[in-house]
Amino acid sequence: MMHTSATAKLLTTCLVMMPFLVGGSRPAMGAPLAVDDSPGGAGEWGLRPADGATSATTPAAFTWRPQAGATAYELQCARSADFATVAYECASIEYNCHCPPTPFEPGTWYWRFRYRDAKDIASPWSRTRSFTVPAEAVVLPMPSRAEAIGRIPATHPRLFVRPEQIRELRELADGRLRERAQAFRDTCDRLLAHPPPTDEPPMYPADVTRGSEEWRKIWWGNRAYTIRVLDGAATLAFGRLLFDNDAYGQAARALLLRAAEWNPKGSTGYRYNDEAGMPYAYHFSRTYTFVNDMLTDEEKAMCRAVMRTRGQEMYAHLCPRHLWKPYASHSNRAWHFLGEVGIAFLGEIPEAEQWAWFALNVFFCTYPVWSDDDGGWHEGVSYWSSYISRFTWWADVMRAAMDIDAYRKPYFSKIGYYPMYLQPPGTRGGGFGDLCAQRRADHNRELMAVLAAQARNPYWQWYVDAVGGPVRRDDYVNIVRGALPSVEATPPVDLPSSRVFRGTGQAMLNSDAMDAARNVQIMLKSSPFGTQSHGYESQNAFLLYAFGERLFIRTGRRDNYGSDHHKNWMWETKSVNSILVNGKGQRKHSADATGKIVDFHTSDWLDVVTGEAGDAYGKALERFSRTIVFVKPDLIVIIDRLAAPEQSAFEWLLHSPSEIVVNGSHDVRTVSGKAACRASFLAPADLQLSVTDRFDVPPRPRVKLTEWHLTAKTAAPMRTPQFVTVLRPHRSDAPPPSLPELRDAAGCRVVEADTGKGSAAVVLRTDTGGPVTYAGRTVDADVAVFALDAGDRVVRCWPAPNRGPSD
């Protein structure tokens, strides 16, 4: 810890030197430079920690806007706003970010930055920002450059294992991991007998259209081909280490050198086709470090030349852009692949140390980007699984090469709750996000097993067991991971059944989070991330699953990224369960189309969540507040309050994978396997309902998909409509629940419905203020919920009443 006093000043100076800077000279005299201190905008990481923020880690990780003409930055931190005593200082920072190597003591802190130009003239200091380090902050300092690089082995191997660990790993392969090791040996033997082809993959034809079926075949085909060649090489190379088998090593060497002959800026180049270029980079680097001592000096030089070209191309694309504008999907795996290249070729390629140092800065200062400390993921569970699975490789690499534990980061302490609440065991359907419709809970088995083991979380281990148990992969990564001790599973019976992920604006409301066969689940999205990237669904959209089936869904099927159907149906509000204004939806595929979860309550009998999404419509709306009341397990009331600047037409949308049958506005039904639902549109009056099973922008012919789309349109233009909709999910082999009722009362409207244990009333305030009363209970709230027994006596109330009997 760092300590300060009135009589003594502790100055900690960080020497993170740029290769082309001489050192910490005093600022040159001259006209002061200007500091661009403007806050981050859409698509930008922003200044962190923000003024008044609380840091989840100690020390905090600092980022600021990159400054034009800057050649180095300085950071100061103090315990007082006047910086009379500087408690931490770091000079000659290369990037526009910094994480100190020493923890900060709890309390209030202040920080500022400045920069130097090519003439070594110092700018003024930025404005001062405050932040708080709480007593419970996770201790996560970033080692200095010299320390981090110094921890990397001087000899090979350097990725996943260190040279001194090989003997222990061989002993495990002969002992506790014998069965897994034998399966891995069998894989190596098959590769030895039938090595993959190694001809260089083809380029795109000159007349091919980007995004076409022909283009896609080459784009993805070259990725698969590259992985087959170089993952095969890495597998054989590691097999040689594990089993001391030179035949495996020579086969790996042959594959490596053949791939080294491919044009580094050709069909597998990073900028030409990053889906081929990224796996080339990390599989090549792994093979190189595993088989390094079998290569001649000439062969090493050939490999270094290839990876210098490829690494520089990656670095030029990522740095410095990714440290301030990190919301490019592919870049969020490319940076740690570059880190692997840097570690493997450290001391052998001049720029390799810089690549490794850059990757470390990304991890500590700007990763992960599609989440916050809640544990959610903006891009959806499919992309979460894909990207986090690959990130776990980097976590393994950092631990082995630099003794850094990635799982101490706050996000990774909560990461496993996202799939647990999104997809309780047995769930089919992956919620919001690209490529999620067909996701099942058991698809999370492999990644969750890694996370449970690495984070030592017993609830996550319970989830792994509940969805089918670990998936045993007998590859070299999992051979290394097999050395980890097991985790004892604990059922989450003491956890709430519902959870909100505010940072990504998603709430998962479950009646039973332990078994989808018993569960009714409704999800709401209202996200500060907007509708960008692969989490493009419009704000205040909801989904309804029940008894393991999808009932009300987000629609479409991605036939190809950026296709006509993908862009003009799936990216549009019309494809989700939300609302159109004058026939138009929210700004699509935009970081500016934001929403926010503004209220959340969960208990054993009731969940309530409210999202606000008016800003997502630009000038078309001033307000769109959607409140979902879930009286568990089978009564859902959705209240939508909207305000437009002028009289407008509104369309309330509902989508299902199964036929929607309309028997009047109060009785709309759908059946999906074991689940069914009755929907009642109670307000506004005279809604005009229509149903179609057609897409106005259909997917490509190879995609066979039929889904149903209901539109409930207001009969006349309105400025401030209030929609009241009731959903009654039930098992398809049981009769539907009775119809709900909506009645007006003094200063409020009341939705009343039967439940299995009596009835429930949802009271909606209509006046601008003042309390509302129901059954003798008075509550000061826009929405109040009452549970009544068979004798119409109030047994539960939310929120707590101001007067009257209380439970």
Task: Find the structural class using helix and strand composition.
Answer: alpha+beta
Shape: globular
The overall average pLDDT, rounded, is: 94
Strand order of the largest sheet: 17-18-19-20-27-24-23-22
Radius of gyration: 29 Å
Q: Beta-sheet strand percentage?
A: 15-25%
Helix content: 25-40%
Please write the CATH class name of the largest domain.
Mainly Beta
Could you name the CATH topology of the largest domain?
A: Beta-galactosidase, Chain A, domain 5
Total of helices:
16
**Which CATH architecture of the largest domain would you pick?**
Distorted Sandwich
Overall tally of structural domains: 5
The span between the termini is: 48 Å
The tally of beta strands, per DSSP, is 34
Question: Which segments are poorly predicted (pLDDT under 50) over 5 or more consecutive residues?
Answer: 1-13, 15-29
Largest sheet: 8 strands, antiparallel
Key descriptive features of the protein:
26% helix; 34 strands; 6-stranded mixed sheet; 16 helices; Glycosyltransferase; 807 residues; alpha+beta; 5 domains; 8-stranded antiparallel sheet; disordered N terminus; Immunoglobulin-like
Plain-language structure description:
The chain is built from 16 helices and 34 strands. With 807 residues, the chain is of the alpha+beta class. The protein starts with 12 loop residues before the first strand and ends in a 9-residue tail after the last strand. The protein has five domains: 1-142, Immunoglobulins (Immunoglobulin-like); 149-367, Glycosyltransferase, CATH 1.50.10; 369-493, no CATH class; 499-735, Beta-galactosidase, Chain A, domain 5; 740-807, no CATH class. Helix 3 (178-193) packs across helix 4 (213-243), helix 4 runs parallel beside helix 6 (274-290) and helix 6 (274-290) runs antiparallel to helix 7.
